[in-house]
Design a protein that fits this description.
By secondary structure, this protein is mostly helical. Helix content is about 75%, strand content about 0%. The protein contains three helices and no strands. The longest helix is centred in the last third of the chain and has 28 residues, at about 50-79. The protein is elongated. The mean pLDDT is about 85.
C-alpha cells in the first residue's frame, strides 16, 4: 500500500526526467516520460505488481512530478 514516505519518489522522478532532458529529449515529451516513470515505479515498487493500484498510484506520482518539474522551471525562468 502507498505510504507517506513514498512521496519521496516524486523528486526521484523529477531527477530522472532532468537526465532525459539533458540527454536531448524534446521538452514536449518530458511530461509523458514523467508519467511513464511514475506508472512503472508505482507498479513495481509501491504496490509490488498490483496492476490496478500501481497504475493509479503511478499516475499520481508521475503527474505530481510533472507539475513539480514545470512549476520549478517556470519559477526559475521568472527570476
Amino acid at each position: 500500500m502507498f505510504e507517506i514516505y513514498d512521496i519521496a519518489i516524486i523528486p526521484v522522478i523529477v531527477g530522472l526526467v532532468e537526465v532525459f532532458k539533458r540527454a536531448g529529449v524534446p521538452c514536449k515529451i518530458l511530461p509523458f516520460i514523467s508519467l511513464a516513470l511514475g506508472i512503472i515505479i508505482g507498479i513495481v515498487y509501491v504496490t509490488e505488481f498490483d496492476l490496478k493500484q500501481g497504475i493509479l498510484v503511478g499516475v499520481m506520482l508521475g503527474l505530481s512530478a510533472s507539475g513539480l518539474y514545470s512549476g520549478t522551471k517556470s519559477t526559475i525562468e521568472k527570476e
